[in-house]
Design a protein that fits this description.
Blueprint (H helix, E strand, L loop, with lengths): L1 H18 L7 H13 L8 H28 L4 H18 L1 H19 L4 H44 L2
Helix pairs in contact: 1-2, 1-6, 2-3, 2-6, 3-6, 4-5, 5-6
Length: 167
């Protein structure tokens, strides 16, 4: 059973890393589920305090990510339309352009939203779209960094348990 839980935990670690880039998967909280799987094993030592601390960190990063995109648009003078356009652009870009759409989608969505609905000029809409992209990329970087650190600790915890088995 432990081997199954370790494998399932590893799956959630990888899924969380991928989720750092995709808007439909919350990266760090998904990665944290990998630690939760380890907690339920008898062969890998994961303390309740470690589990709680990493959960708080995962939820904090998830919250900060949501705020970064909004701040990026607002800092450059955009409004609700720019934020909504950025989110819609991200989803549409991902569907039609794949990984390239992750970068292009938020920018184009915020640009078109501000240009069409707020009647901003091209220069102002471009500035707001740049803020949306910068906020999005900052969030992705933060989520990816935390997910990679979680993956590192997952591997360390599993490795330590293998060393303790004295095969």
């Amino acid at each position: 059973m432990d081997l199954f839980l370790i494998g399932l935990g590893g799956f959630f670690i990888l899924l969380g890393i991928i989720g750092s880039f995709l808007p439909v998967l919350p990266g760090p909280p998904t990665t944290w589920v990998g630690f939760l799987m380890l907690y339920f094993t008898s062969s890998v030592n994961v303390s309740l305090s470690f589990l709680f601390l990493t959960l708080i960190l995962a939820l904090l990063v998830f919250s900060i990510d949501s705020i970064l995109s909004v701040l990026g648009v607002k800092k450059m003078g955009g409004g609700k339309v720019g934020i909504i356009g950025s989110s819609i652009g991200l989803i549409i870009g991902l569907i039609f352009l794949g990984p390239f759409g992750i970068l292009l989608g938020p920018f184009v969505g915020a640009f078109l939203g501000e240009l069409l609905f707020n009647r901003n000029n091209t220069e102002s809409s471009f500035k707001i779209a740049s803020g949306a992209l910068l906020g999005f990329l900052s969030g992705v970087f933060l989520k990816f960094l935390v997910s990679i650190v979680f993956a590192y600790y997952f591997v360390i915890k599993v490795w330590e348990s293998l060393a303790d088995l004295k095969l």
